TrEMBL record:
It comes from Streptomyces kanamyceticus. It comes from the Bacteria. Keywords: Oxidoreductase. This is Aldehyde dehydrogenase family protein. The lineage of its organism: Bacteria, Bacillati, Actinomycetota, Actinomycetes, Kitasatosporales. Residues 55-498 form the Aldehyde dehydrogenase domain.
Length: 523
């Protein structure tokens, strides 16, 4: 995809980078803030309580404008094994530390994260393409969420003990703070040493800074980089590991699930599912139109995004009357491009996808789907994007909406993880339910219907962990539980008290709420 000009540039009013937000600015601030974790041109790995200049740094580019940034320093399998053994030693000391001391160290970490909130957010903008609004929200949700656990941890661990070994975390790149760092700090608060692998596709500097701030407070974290295939023996199969926590796609998740099942190891595996929004006997089109732009937050690169609408055929014309004007208002562009250097950050719905390769893959899928019979209903206008003059826009994809993607297309049955909506038309309630359950389990779903009785009758038949009536559902914060049905989740459920229960030991014979091969137990 080539660079393009914006309508502002055409008018002679070119956008510029907001003052103080360049990658070089952010990197220099990292060097100043945490010199122990950052070198001139690379980040370090954290293991055995020390920042180590090991691993082979990979070249990397940012998704915002395609220019170079620091890549992950990939360890080999042998070094990763040493890191896991060292984490076990940390775990054996930390699990016996008094709860008030653990609470104090995690609370101090939260104070430090709060102090460096803007730098953490800026790193998220550059490394994974979040808008400023969403980057700040990611940091804030991590801090606020862990504070809730700090305040209530006494009751959550009463009668429980830490695991026998550290918790190993392998997570996707899209929520480094509000999912990964949040989970790591709660796991540590509950009495466990914690290991995390940096996502290959982005977020290494943000995670490095966050872990540096925690390590200064004496929280036993290990942060390593490397390929999943090379490090899985250490991070998943090693006997020292007490629990494996995974967030990612079904293919990788299936391999992890097989490993933990063979070993009888405790696990939390959050996997993708095709989240759907059903429309049946519905008339509040203003409400639907108002929510459509919000569903494109972060380019739908979220585990709780809604990429599929299942629409009653008789209502299709009214649905389009609400949907199309709304999707045309979605704002895309460079997250740091402003008219004047001192202007506030731009208000955008999303910026780039995670990288140019993903953008090309998604664009190719759309082209193939149309070639095989899908009907394009909307394609975003690239000329309306907000970009800097001459910048690389290879990672940007504007909203696309397709009617009836063919069964041969990945867009028919899988989550696109990008700003592509697909619509399927149905004529009966049975067809509605079959289309909403196309992926054998999802994390969230929504059903819009005017009749409360219809919702109460159909909602239990939708295979999603959370189902909303006319409103989107989210992962949730604090005491809201989270999990999945079918192939979208394996192992213990999390959220609220369950996150602590998943990484602690209770009474003999305790059955954790979750989705396991031998049982499915709700909280």
């Amino acid at each position: 995809m080539t660079s393009l000009s914006t309508s502002r540039e055409a008018a002679g009013d070119a956008l510029v980078l907001k003052a103080g937000t360049a990658w070089t600015d952010a990197w220099q601030r990292c060097l100043t803030t945490a010199p122990e974790a950052f070198r001139d041109d690379r980040v370090l790995n954290l293991w055995n309580g020390t920042w180590q200049a090991d691993g082979r740094p990979l070249p990397a580019t940012n998704p915002v404008d395609g220019t170079p940034i620091a890549g992950p320093p990939r360890l080999d399998a042998g070094t990763a094994r040493q890191a896991v053994r060292a984490a076990l030693d940390q775990h054996r000391a930390w699990r016996h530390l008094a709860l008030p001391e653990r609470r104090a160290r995690v609370a101090a970490t939260l104070d430090s994260l709060t102090q460096h909130r803007e730098l953490l957010a800026l790193l998220l903008v550059w490394e994974i393409g979040k808008t400023w609004r969403l980057a700040q929200a990611d940091v804030d949700r991590a801090i606020d969420g862990v504070r809730w656990y700090v305040d209530g941890i006494d009751a959550m661990v009463e009668g429980r003990a830490p695991l026998e070994g550290p918790v190993s975390n392998i997570a996707s790149w899209n929520y480094p703070m509000s999912v990964l760092v949040h989970t790591m700090l709660v796991q540590a608060l509950a009495g466990n040493a914690v290991i995390a692998k940096t996502p290959t596709d982005g977020g290494v500097a943000c995670l490095t800074l966050a872990c540096a701030l925690a390590a200064r407070e004496g929280v036993p974290l290990t942060l390593v980089s490397g390929s999943g295939g090379e490090l899985s023996e250490a991070l998943v199969r090693a006997p020292e590991i007490g629990c494996v926590s995974f967030v990612g796609g079904r293919d990788t998740g299936a391999a992890v699930a097989t490993a933990v099942a063979d070993l009888g190891k405790r696990h939390i595996l959050e996997q993708e599912g095709l989240n759907t929004w059903g429309i049946w006997n519905y008339s509040d089109w203003d409400a639907l139109g108002a929510v459509v732009p919000k569903l494109f937050d972060y380019g739908k690169q979220r585990c709780t995004a809604y990429p599929r609408f299942v629409v009653q055929r008789a209502l299709f014309d009214e649905f389009l009357g609400a949907y199309l004007p709304a999707v045309r208002t979605v704002r895309v562009g460079h997250p740091l491009a402003v008219a004047q250097p001192d202007d506030t950050f731009p208000e955008l719905d999303f910026g780039p996808l995670i990288n140019a390769a993903k953008a090309k893959e998604l664009t190719d899928q759309v082209t193939q789907a149309v070639d095989r019979g899908a009907v394009p209903l909307h394609r975003g206008e690239t000329a309306k994007g907000r970009f800097l003059p001459g910048q690389d826009t290879g990672a940007y994809v504007h909203p696309v909406t397709l009617l009836n993607p063919p069964p041969s297309s990945p867009l028919h049955h899988a989550e696109p993880f990008g700003p592509v909506d697909t619509i399927v038309l149905v004529d009966t309630e049975a067809e509605l339910l079959a289309a909403m359950n196309a992926s054998n389990g999802a994390l969230v779903a929504t059903l819009s219907t005017d009749d409360p009785a219809t919702y109460e009758r159909l909602a239990p038949q939708i295979r999603a962990f959370k189902t909303g009536r006319g409103k989107p559902r989210s992962r949730g914060d604090r005491d809201e539980l989270f999990g999945g049905f079918g192939a979208s989740w394996r192992g213990a459920f999390v959220g609220g008290e369950l996150l602590v229960r998943a990484v602690t030991q209770g009474s003999a014979g305790e059955r954790a709420p979750g989705n396991f091969p031998s049982y499915h137990l709700m909280a």
